[in-house]
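Researcher: I'd like a structural prediction for the single chain below. Treat it as a standalone chain; there are no partners to consider.
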Amino acid sequence: MVSEAEIERLRLEADTIFTRIETVRSALDDARHSEGDHWDDEELELTLASPAGDDVEVTLDLTRSAAENAQERYERADELEGELAEREAVAGELAVVPPTPLAFLVLYHLDTVEGDYPRSMAGHLTADRKRTAETCEDLVTAGVLERIESGMLKRRDVKLKKANETHQHHTYYRLSRQGDHLLRFLGEREGKANFLRWVDGAATLARRLSRGGPDYPRMTAEELDRDFETVRRLYRAMRRVGLVTTYEGSIIKGTERKLKPKDETHRKHTYYVTTDVADRILRDLDDGSDS
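Model: Treating it as a single chain, here is the predicted structure.
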C-alpha cells in the first residue's frame, strides 16, 4: 500500500545507508564471503544508526553494492510519491486506503467494537480470513489502523469480548487517530464524493440505483457480471458511508423501479436506494462541477 510513512521509511533507509556506507560495504563483503541463511534469498539484514542516531533495520540486496541499495530506495520512494499524488488527485484523504469495500468495512467495524482480530472480523464481515488479515496490514501501513500491543486486553478496550479480560492469542487491531479522522471525513460531503470516485464499482452501483430505483445485491451482481459477495460488501460499505440506505416498504411500485418494470414488486430481498446526498453528488459529478 502506498503511504507517506512508506515513502519516508524508504528515504530514511537510503539516507542511513549512505551515512554508514563503509559499514554497509564491509557487511556486504563479509556476507558474500561466508556461508549462511542469507544466501537463501540473497538478502542481508543489518541494523544501522540513522543520521539522527536511531537504530534502523535494513534488508540489503547481496547482489548490489551499498550505493545501489541506497539508490534503489530513493528511486522507489520517488515512484511511490508520484503514485500517491495521482491517487490523491482522485481520492483526497482516502488515497491511502485500498479501493475495496472490505477495507472500509474493516474501518467501520473497528470503530464500532474498538478492537478485533482478522478471523473474527472475517466472520462478522463474511469475508475471506486471509484477505481480511492482508487488508488489516495494508491499513496499518496506511496509518489508519494500529496493532494493539500484546498482553492482556481489558473488556472495556474490546467490546466484543465477554470476559473481564482475555489473554491476547491473536493480533488485534484498532483505529489510529488518522483512522478516526478518516471516518469523520467520510461523514462529510467531500468524503462521500471521494468514496464514489475511489472505491471500485461504487460510482457504477450508485448511478444504477439513482437512475433505476431499488435493487438488491444478487440482481446487481448478475446484471453487472460482478462477484456477489463483493457487491454485497459494496452495498454495506456505501450504507455505512451514507450513500445508500435500505428500502423500507414491503411493496415497490413500478414507478419507483425502472430496472425491472412491472406494476409492483413484493420485497423478498434487502433492497437498496441512493440517499439524497448521493443523488446530489452524482449530479455534480456528471455535470463536472465536483472535481
